[in-house]
Amino acid sequence: MPSYDYLHRAEFWLLITTLVYFLMNGAQIFETAVIIPRWTANAPASFSLLKGIDLKTFWIVMHSVHEITFMAAIYFCWDLGQVRNWLLLLFGIHFAVRVWTIVYFAPIIIRFQKNENLAATDEELQIIATRWRKLNYIRVGLFVAISIAMVFTYFLFMSIRY
């Protein structure tokens, strides 16, 4: 059985990364419920709403902080086989969703924000915006599912600890 100090550090980082993930999910849910329906409502006219909203810096910082805490949790839980394995699995899923975000979601919203390369018709832009919104529901759902799985991972940690 690992030492008390080891378990204490492991628990601390597991809780921190779970809390940061829930904070991040709260922002994602707010954005999905309030901001995204507005800018996708009447493309391309509604893209003007994106001009006054620059969430890029917020999301870069938020994801960076979260991913650092996630890696710290993996590091400090490394000797706890089942917890480590769950964290690695969840981090892998998280990483896949982040890649999807960087490859699909970010380029589209950046293009819409800058109003660049919008050679498509209004109808085509509306289809793209609507698809983006619908796929975002799946993306946010995956992030929320990972958060819930983090709670179960914490419960697993507690069953090992006590």
Task: List the SSEs and their pairings.
Elements: H1 4-39, H2 56-76, H3 81-114, H4 122-161
Helix pairs in contact: 1-2, 1-4, 2-3, 3-4
Structure overview:
The protein is mainly α. The protein has one domain (4-161). Helices cover 81% and strands 0% of the residues. The protein contains four helices and no strands. The chain has helices at 4-39, 56-76, 81-114, 122-161. Helix 1 runs antiparallel to helix 4. The mean pLDDT is 92. The chain crosses the membrane at residues 12-36, 57-76, 88-110, 140-160. This is Transposase. It comes from Mucilaginibacter boryungensis. Keywords: Membrane, Transmembrane, Transmembrane helix.
Key structural traits:
single chain, 162 residues, mainly alpha, 4 helices, 81% helix, elongated
How would you concisely characterize the structure shown here?
This protein is mostly helical. It has four helices and no strands. Helix 1 packs antiparallel against helix 2, helix 2 (56-76) runs antiparallel to helix 3 and helix 3 packs antiparallel against helix 4.
State the helical fraction.
Answer: over 70%
Tell me what portion of residues adopts beta-strand conformation.
Answer: under 5%
The shape, in one word, is elongated
**Structural class per helix/strand content?**
mainly alpha
Distance between the termini: 11 Å
Please give the count of helices.
4
The main β sheet shows up as: none
